[in-house]
Amino acid sequence: DLSKNNLEGVIPSEIGQLQNIAS
């Protein structure tokens, strides 16, 4: 999943990491 977010951009990857921590 992180790799997919990296393809979309740095910001989406950061958001994804924050969501993983929040969940």
3D architecture notes:
This is Leucine-rich repeat-containing N-terminal plant-type domain-containing protein. The chain starts with a helix and ends with a helix. It has 23 residues and is mainly α. Helices cover 87% and strands 0% of the residues. The chain has 2 helices and no strands. Helix 1 packs antiparallel against helix 2.
Order of helices and strands: HH
Report the sheet-strand fraction. Answer: under 5%
> Over all CA atoms, what is the radius of gyration?
8 Å
N- to C-terminal distance = 15 Å
Summarize the main sheet. Answer: none
Helix share bin: over 70%
Mean pLDDT: 75
Structural class: mainly alpha
**With helices defined by DSSP (H or I, 4 residues minimum), what is the helix count?**
2
What characteristic shape results from the CA principal axes? elongated
Q: Report the oligomer.
A: single chain
Low-confidence stretches: none
Quantity of strands, as a count: 0
List the helices and strands and how they pair.
Layout: H1 2-8, H2 10-22
Protein name: Leucine-rich repeat-containing N-terminal plant-type domain-containing protein
Short account of what is shown:
By secondary structure, this protein is mostly helical. The chain contains two helices and no strands.
